[in-house]
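Session log. Operator J.P. requested a structure for one protein chain; no other inputs attached. Running the standard single-chain path with token output.
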Amino acid sequence: MSQTLEVKVLEASKRLLGEEHPATLRSMNHLANTYWNQGQWSDAEELEVKVFEARKRLLGEDHPNTLLSMSNLAYVFEHQARYSEAAALRQAVQEIKDKTIPTLQISSSPPPLPLKPPLLLMIEKMKLSSLDPVLEDVD
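Structure written below.
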């Protein structure tokens, strides 16, 4: 049932938006995931390759969606016992992540907290300004 609906959504998306529209590529990815769950690895591979190649061309190799597609394709290869191809893809993903995602600088002390949250400061200011007429009478 789910697969039939996803195929129809994908066909409509291709027809209305085009083969390489982000929504069409997402639909392809969803259908590939359904194929995974059903053990239809060659069908999943066909779609994952298309999504990966399109995203690589359109978004670049180091875009998060391209990296996701590479990981998905590696997953499919692993389930097809194509371990060396899967390992090569996973290695490429890790190298790109290492290159593009800066390492976190861990500090021994946490960043300083604001003295008072902005909303609390605003409320206090409103309260104080409402006291202005009272304070004028005291003077």
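Operator note: The longest helix spans residues 118-138.
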